[in-house]
Each structure stands twice: as C-alpha cells, then as structure tokens.
Amino acid sequence: MASSANGRPAVPAEPDFRRFFIGYATSLFGSAMAPVAVAFAVLDNGGNGTGLGWVMAARILPIVLVLLAGGVIADRLDSKRVMLTADLLRCATQTTLAVLLLTGRPSLWTMAATVAVWGVGEGFFLPALGALTPELVRDRHRLSDANALLGLARSVATVAGPGTAGIVTAVWGPAAVLLADGASYAIGALALVRLSLPRRPAAEEPASLLADLREGWTEFRSRAWLWTTTAHMGLFNLLVWAPFLVLGPLTAQRRLGGAWAWGLVMAGYGIGAVAGGLAMLGRRPGRPLAVATVASLGWALPSAALAVRAPLAWTAVAALLAGVGSAVVGTLYNSVTQQRVPPDVLARISAFGALGAFVLGPVGLAAAGPVAEHTGASAVLAFGAGWQLVAAAAVLAIPAVRTLGALRPPDPVAASPGLPTAPGPEDAQPGRSPT
Fold first, then answer.
1. For a disulfide at 119, which of 47, 59, 102, 431, Cβ 3.0-4.6 Å?
2. What is the set of domains in the chain, with CATH numbers?
3. Is pLDDT above 90 for 338?
C-alpha cells in the first residue's frame, strides 16, 4: 500500500469510502462498456453514421442541460440521495434498452430517447459526486488520496471497459453489455444505500431554484482560481482535445497504420492516467494549483506529435505523458475544491465547473473537421498544442493560482471531523476542479 511522506497510509481508511469506491468503480466499468454496445446496437438495427451521431448527442445534451439543476438539488437535499436516484434511473434505462434489443428492433428515436434518460441520470450524478467525496473522508488531508483513487478507477475503466465490451458484443450481442451495465449501476446503488452518512437537515424556507443558482454563481465567480481553471479547461476542450479526438483517428488512418494505431495511442493515454493516479497517492504538493497547471502542459504533446508527423511510437509516448498530466490535474483540482469551498454550495460549484469545462466541447468536435479541410489537420493540431502552452503560462501568471498553498492542518480541537477546515487568508479566491 502506498504511503505518504508522514508514514500514514495513502488510501483513506474510512469504511464508507471503501464501500463507495467498490460500487463506484463497478458502475464506472459498466459505463465505459456501454457506448460500444449502444454504437453497435444502432448499426445492427439499420442505423448509419448520422443516426449514431444523433443517438450519441441525445446522451450528451441532457447532461449539459441538467448539470446546474443537479447541483442545486444535491445542495438542497444531500448528495447520497441524489446519486442513489441517479444510479437507479440509469440502471432502469440500461435494462430497458437491453430488453428492447432482446425482444425486437427498436427504432432509432426510441434508442435516442432511452439514452437521453441515461444522460439525465449522469447530469444529476456528476455534481453530487463532487460534493459527496469530502463526506466520505474525515481527514481533509486524505482528500487528495481519495480523489487519486477515484481518478484511478476512471482511468482503469477507460482502458479496460471498451475492450471488454467489444468482446462481449461480438459473442453475445450489445444487449448483454447493457444488461451488465444495468447490473453495475445496481451495485453502485447498493453501495450508496450502505453508506452511514448523517442526513442533512432541510432548510426551513427553501429558496427558489433561481436564487440557489444565483448564490452558487456568486460563490463561483468570487474565486479567481475557480473560474480561471474552469476557463482553462473549457478552452482546452474546445481548441485542443476536441480537434485531437476528431483529427487523431483521421491522421492515424492516413499515416500511422489505421484503427489499431489509434487504439495504441489512446491506450497509451489510459495507461498514463493510471500511472499518474498511482503516483499521486500519498502526495500533497505545497502549491497544488501551480503543480496541476504545470502538469497540464502535457496535454499539448499528443497534438504536437501528430502535427509534426512524429512516428507512432513517439505519438503513443506523448499520449501517455498527457494521461499522466490528466491524472495529476484531476486529483489536485478536485482536492483543492473540496477543501476550500463551503459544503453547502459544493455541488453547485461542481455543476458550474463541469458546465464551463465541457459546454464548448461539442462545438470543437463539430468544427474540427470543417476547419481542417480549409487549413489542414496539422495546422489545427499545431494551433491547439501552441494554445495549451500559452494558456498554461497565462494561468500560472495569475497569483490566485500560482501562490495558493496547501491547506493547513486543522486545529484538532476546533475542527469538526466531518467538515472542511475554516479557510485561511489565502482563501480569498478559492476554487474547484473543472474535471
């Protein structure tokens, strides 16, 4: 077991965290398998590339639309109940789609409507997850380790899930994968039921949805390193990651050897993310946002490798380093947010962060191909790589990001074991993870 510098185990010892981690990791693996099954379900039922695009968009759009409402509801009630409801909804959705495939040939619009409900569940789950993690880890200085483990689970699922889904789909069909995904959500729900967390008391006079959103927005924009890192992530997804995801496979097909080469590049990214998650266990840098921003420089490497026509091996290595950087960024941003944002607005902060980070991604996906037709794929990829270098330097130049120190140890008498410690003077502009 990894250990921190002070000799304490890096893995949080709280039983609630262990229960949640097992359920969450299981549902993540199912979630990583499901897109492969959905894609082949559409194609096997007579759909084409356009139809598949509509079905995939039907999942993504509800996530964006309900994120803010999910954050408000999680803050009003409690994260556990919201996540439990989301898991049960997603379990029902995947099971229903599997039954439809087993008993007939559902129409394209039926499948799109079903995956849209799946997306609604995910949109409610994500902001609640950001608020739940601090409740599972009493030692605020173990939050970094908890987030590293959760990120590690996501990385492992990203690497192993699609390959497993491909094999199961080929042997038993997409319905089998979707049934397994439904079961994985049921396991996640069971883990949530078993958490022994105190129920949050309801407010005597709940504010309106708009008032709650306004309060969350005020908290969000008042923290310079919060909206700065969110803007950094949003523009990265627009200008760097979306073009890489669209033009990378095209470049691999034309020059690197085809689908297997692209699979190798993406596997390198996943392996790097796993390695980065392991490396973060037990480590709490003194300037977490500065370290995270430096780590984000690695995101420029895969696009740069494709732009300069690097060989496959070097492109895969560049993707691996980017994966390491992704794990470092996600772990530190999430930990800083959970340590310094008041618990009663944390879900809304997470929702605003996720919305800002990812809302421009679909625009980048749609624009990358047409822009590349006029300027060339290498030019688009090179611009993205250059942008990432400049953006990271600009973020580091902001004092609220560069100088923010690690959270001080709590007063053992004054600190409540279930809540973050009181913010210090450096918290005039606290923040949240955009990942």
1. 59
2. 9-195 (1.20.1250.20), 209-407+418-435 (1.20.1250.20)
3. no
